[in-house]
Amino acid sequence: MKISNTIPDQFEGNEAYMNIVQRVSVRRFTEEAVTDDQLSAILHAAMSAPSGVNRQPWEFVVIDDKRLLQELSEALPYAKMVSQAGVALIVSGNRNRFLEGEDSELWQQDLSAVSENILLASHAIGLGGVWTCIFPHEERIAPVRKILEIPDALIPFNLIPIGYPKADHAPINKWNPDRIHFNSFREE
Question: Is the pTM of this model over 0.90?
Fold first, then answer.
């Protein structure tokens, strides 16, 4: 097989595909509010993610209170931008819906799929967001639990601030053919 170094022409106009390859992480937001319909669309997309045995181990805390957004920005070292966001989502794993045994950690994959859907949906409707890490850092989990009164049965996984991008952001070209291996992993 031969992989092209450019997007094949036949996919260049496909909206869903282009939304994926043109998505960017947005860390600066305007003052414009995120609407209820936009938030609803994002959450519908989030819950459309796949999950192991369809357990859907996710819970969301939607934050639009400016005081709480400010508190979170002060408490989390890599989420300073959340104070500017129109809204933020805490994506959490619900222990009561985790699989058991050797599959007990699959919730992390499920919440990763949810989080990517949030970012893609935000981008598709003209908003922007960025994935900021909470789990597995206890020094980040603890203040989020306290600020948002999150019970022990939930594990805060990440915080995604969402809003209107303050500036145009060009996608970063992450294409690297050296990371592609056919039929086995071997360096050529």
Answer: yes
User: What is the four-CA torsion angle of 16, 21, 22, 23, rounded to 10 degrees?
Assistant: 90
Task: Tell me the pLDDT tens digit for each residue of 40-51.
Answer: 999 999 999 999
Number of domains in the chain: 1
d(CA 3, CA 187): 16
Question: Is the pLDDT score of 188 beyond 60?
Answer: no
Range of the domain at 125: 21-167
Please give the Cα distance from 29 to 161 (Å, whole number): 9
CATH number assigned to the domain comprising residue 31: 3.40.109.10
Residue 78 tokens, joined = 């890599």
Instruction: Decide: 22 and 171 in contact? Cβ < 8 Å.
Output: yes
Q: Is the peptide bond before 171 cis (omega within 30 degrees of 0)?
A: no
pLDDT recorded at residue 13: 86
Determine the Cα–Cα distance for residues 59 and 154; give it in Å rounded to an integer.
8
Identify whether the C-beta of residue 132 lies closer than 8 Å to the C-beta of residue 160.
yes
